[in-house]
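Hello everyone,

My group is preparing for a crystallization screen and wants a predicted model to guide construct design. The compound we'll soak is pyridoxal-5'-phosphate. Before spending weeks at the bench, it would help to have a computed complex in hand. I've included the protein sequence and the ligand's SMILES below. Output in structure-token form would be ideal because that's what our pipeline reads.
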Amino acid sequence: MSEIGKIHYLPERIKGLSELALNLWWRWDRDARKLLRSVDPPMWSATRHNPVAMLRAVEPSRLAQLARDPDFVAAYDQVMEDFRATAAGEGTWFREAYPDLSSARPVAYFCAEFGLHNSIPIYSGGLGVLAGDHCKAASDLGVPFIGVGLLYSRGYFDQKVNLDGWQENSDEVFDHRIMPLVRLAGPDGSYRITTLETSGRPVGIGAWRLDAGSVRLYLLDTDLPENHPEDRQLTYTLYGGGEEYRLKQEWILGVGGVRVLRALGVEPGAWHANEGHAAFMMVERLREELAAGTEWDEGVSRVRARTVFTTHTPVPAGHDIFSPDLVRSVTDGYHATMGVDEATFMKLGRHPGMDDGRFHMTASAIRLASHVNGVSKRHGEVTQELWKSMWPAREVTRVPIGSVTNGVHLGSWMSHHFMEILDDLWGPDWERTLRDEDEWEAFREVDDRRIWEKHRHLKKLLLRFCTEQARQRWKTLWKEAAHLVGAGTLLSSEPLTIGFARRFATYKRGALLLSDPDRLERLLTDLRRPVQLVFAGKAHPADDHGKRVLQQVYQATRDSRFEGRIAFVEDYDLHVAHRLVQGVDLWLNLPRVPKEASGTSGMKAALNCVPQLSTVDGWWAEGFTGGNGWAIPLSEGSPEEVDSHDLQALYELLEREVVPEYYDVDQDGLPRKWIRRMKESMVVAGRFFTTGRMVREYTTRYYASALQGRAEHDDRPVFADPVFLDQGATLATTGSES
Ligand SMILES: *Cc1c(COP(=O)(O)O)cnc(C)c1O
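Reply:
Good plan to model first. Here are the tokens for the complex, ready for your pipeline.
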């Protein structure tokens, strides 16, 4: 752990601060966060809550003073004690529920991105944030768990929007020294931990460790001096290059990930591929089985039994498919090391409905995992339908693809202002002890005024954040004053404020509300009941359609007829997301049904008493109760017809229900009906839409069996789907399924 030296000097009495700063646990432990912040509050803000950067910058005299301050030292001792207990997994749910598995080998969770903290920009959006929240909850619950990903040394792009509203990317190399990363050395003491072959040459792979409570992440890195200059860049950017770059990254993640764990002596008992990007992890384990002399069928069975695969989107563009030539050149003779011919290797990635020889990552993952799931009830059903041809002998409802509905990490997303209310209800330890979901009902009895005041405070913090963000960018980036209006400096704290923040993918319909400008103008500029909109989000760097939607939003922010009541907050990341979901009055979500597998930002809002207005898609299909927001009724027809129906329905709900209810204030100045809806939002989200519930579900439904090597279903030959029937496989063993 020589990298701890990255924090230069700490007095002996409080030297544990460096350990604390190097484990992201502080991010969701309130006492730890408070302690770190109190070291130097202005520096804490200036570093965007980055304790490693703060501890490097703080004056030694300040540290010496803290080491002598009895209050600080007492708080420090308590936090360090809690920290040690967490690292040891003491008193956790998993230990109680699975005493026999407690000393078991961990679940290894592979994902192309992890969103744990804004200081480590190795995520682009929902998938990464979910993966980060999954790790945090696994730590809370004491599930033996490790993460495997890539360390993108240039991160995901930083967003700058030019005056025409066109998104420009800027990549800044990030500074490892201010990140909680520890570089790992391989068995021979060098930074090259393992190697793999791609495109005719070996690539050395290094790794960094990132700790989140008791969970360790291993982040792979090819930027080693001995590597070919092109290969050094393979882990530079997330979703950066073209197809070949991406395939190589997935090759490194899957094959390299397994090899790095082996080299470090980590022996997982179960393997979870979060999205198809990680599917090569299964292929590499199959190769290991075959190399050890296991027969093909038996090898496949063994891999399947210990593998969980989660698919995250029904949108075709969300699934990677690679041409045979590309796969051939990147995997470079790998099939021979498996002892199979190239055709067999390629068949692992055959999509049953696309007989074009391409390698489909999701198809290969479904073939090699026995535990497969979607991320909401509706998405589970959509996924069964999409992949039913893999089980030709089964009815669609019996296709063995389940669902575990996504959640968000409560400790990371709920404002501490609301946590204080829960402390009063259940005592300060509720985050650890609360098990019974019905207890959330008690939240409905909380005094309305208290809820409203907490919310008003958070709303003011959001407005202040917009102004501060504008100030910083005005100083460093912007040349034109028009930027300031677009950034939300004209927003005020009274109007109903609606938030919309997510990736600008066209199916999410970020500009739907703007497509009737006259009606929008009436909505926003009503003299007595004005409305404000706050937008944020990035478009995928290669998605010009998405960029055009963003541009439309951006231009609206500067259109004077809307009186400065539309804002766009640049560079959406975890930090911006926190401010937004906690500070707006209503969360808006408008995916074209059924394209949103789950969606999670609305859950984050709900955990802060912010109701949602949404189409009935993803989590809203099971989360909407009638009392926690509004739903746009389902409609049918062409995409244009659906858009026009949804636009009408959206305005009708806003004009007839949402705005009147928000402004319906009693003699105490409180919108009682609205507050009831706020409470219901919190109760519904707290009971069910958290990663605490989600990881418990993954554990009881999948991890527990996978850790014991028990397949959920293993009743088909690996090539049982129709495309292979003419190639000699038979359906014989699937006959018993129906
Ligand atoms: C939660 C989150 C997302 C995902 O939001 P969706 O509603 O699922 O689209 C994307 N980006 C960031 C930074 C987030 O925090």
